[in-house]
Each structure stands twice: as C-alpha cells, then as structure tokens.
Amino acid sequence: MNSPIHSPLTNHLIDSLPHRDRVSVLADCETVDLAFGKVISEPGDQIQHAYFPLDSFISLITNLSDTERLEVAMVGSEGMLGIPLILGLDESPLLALVQGEGTALRMPVAVFGRHLEQSSALQALLNRYLYVLMHQLTRVAACTHFHQVEARLARWLLMTQDRAHSDQLHLTHEFLAMMLGVRRAGITLAAMALQSRGLIRYHRGDITVLDREGLIEASCGCYSFDRGLYRRIITEADVP
Q: In this model, does residue 158 exceed pLDDT 90?
C-alpha cells in the first residue's frame, strides 16, 4: 500500500464494525475539535473519554524527565486513544499530545464501557487493535536502539503523512528531535540527507514529501512491518 491508510473524516476502527454496532457507537459519540499542542492527558491522569480521531492525530509520549521525552506511538484515523479502558483501567500511562489538529469522535468512559459489554464485535476488534499497538510499541523500542536517525526520520514522516492525509507537514526540528529522542543536530543532518536525495523539501519547519516511494525505501523496515501487521490483523480480519 503506497497511499495513506484512510481518507479524512473517517475512523477505520469504527468503519470496520458491523453496521448495527457502528450505528450504535456513532450515536453515542460527539465530534470535537483538537487543537495542535493540546494535552489530552498526562501520565497518571484519570481517562475521561475514548477518542477516535478522524483527521487529527495524537502522539503518545513517555516522559523520563523534563528534557527526556520519546514518542512511542501515534494515533490517527486508524485507531483510538484510551486503550487502558479495554483492560478495565481508567488511568493514562502516557502523555497524549495532539500533533495534528483536526476532529475526533469522543465518547465518555461510562458509555464506552457499556458498548464494550454489549458489542462482542467491538470487543474483538479493539482486542486486535491492542495486539497491534503492543507489537508496535516493542518495535519502537528496538527501532530506537538499532536503526539510524535518517531511516527513523523517514519512517516517522511516513507515519505522519498517513495520518495527516497530506504531503504538506509542519514540523520543527525541535519537535522532531523530541519525538525521535535525538539531538536537534541529528535531525538537521537526517533531514538534509533526505532532502539531498530528492525525497523531501524542508524549509523552516515546513516539510513536503516529494517522493513517497523513495521515502519508504529510505525508511527502516519497521514502517512496512507496521503497515502489514495492521492490514493483516485489522483491515483483513473477519470481525464476528
């Protein structure tokens, strides 16, 4: 798959439900606007809502200290924010930060819990999504340790492009450095390398993806692995 996973203003998890379950879930959701930089929850916060992004996307960040942060997952129209709720927990384990402004569907925790109890299809689908997310989290740990910054940056830009549904991205070096857990100088060198190969154009925080196929080749295999895993476990799965 060479194009972004989903079109704007849809959420693939909700769209994957049987018609009756989908209608029921949508009836209890409200559409909210998420502004860039909004903190939805801090580690240890009580979760108030489940979010299903439409054309917005959210970074899940682990904090080791005020200066040591690393993005460990990204949630867009392919997923949901509030995974602990599937396990019967309402505590946020990570910082949830809006990285791409836009809209999302939001459902109160109590209502979400009732839907989980009443819909075996929703439970089965979200269990599959939890499996995918767990696999991706372990992959991020290995990727951060073993893969070069240039390949990781290419992967991260592709992930962002998929969720932004656009070739135009606005990402400063400071923000990218925080997301990838490297120094700003490392991001500068990696971005220059990708630009010199004609894969992106970068100027003052504005990044344009010029060659998506080339960017996929430049990225580590983790990007294609994640896409393939999601497709196999979620997109091609038969939800009961």
A: yes
